[in-house]
Amino acid sequence: MPERGRWGLALFLGLLGVFAVLLLASDRAPKMPSDPDHGIDLPEIRCLSCHGYGQKHPRPEDHPLRDDCFSCHRDAQGKLHPRWDAPTSLPGGWRDDPRLLAKGAR
User: Fold this and answer.
1) Annotated region Disordered: where (predicted)?
2) Were 76 and a residue from 33, 34, 47, 83 both cysteine, which residue would form a disulfide, CB within 3.0 to 4.6 Å?
């Protein structure tokens, strides 16, 4: 293979590797929808009324063991709104979800 072809192949493989790493590293929490039920002014306990265990839209089994929703989930524009006093465990939260609690016990 000519020298120029090797450099082109190396560049292509390098860019492909960078793209793969970026794709795998972009494990972000989903953004919140832009509707009245997902306002950043709502308390986290309100999130659990829909996303708690046994509710209409429960959190997935791989959810972090935290209930301070706004520390990870961004608003519809992509901005974080962490609260310094947000609880990491709430009634109806991860400690009451047997799937998540089992994960925490591992």
Assistant:
1) 79-106
2) 34
Helix (H) or strand (E) holding 101: helix 98-105
Tell me the CB-side half-sphere exposure of residue 103, using CA atoms within 13 A.
13
CA nearest 92: which of 41, 42, 60, 58?
Answer: 58
Task: Indicate the pLDDT class of residue 1, thresholds 50, 70 and 90.
Answer: low
DSSP for 23-46 reads HHH--PPPPPPSSGGG-TTS-HHH
Is the pTM for the entire model greater than 0.90?
no
What are the C-alpha distances in Å from 31 to residues 27, 37, 47, 71? 12, 13, 13, 12
The model's pLDDT over 50-68, given as tens digits with 9 standing for 90+, comes to: 999 999 999 999 999 999 9
DSSP 57: S
Cα distances (Å, whole numbers) of residue 99 to 7, 59, 93, 102: 50, 10, 11, 5
DSSP category for residue 58? P
Domain boundaries defined on the chain: 1-29, 31-105
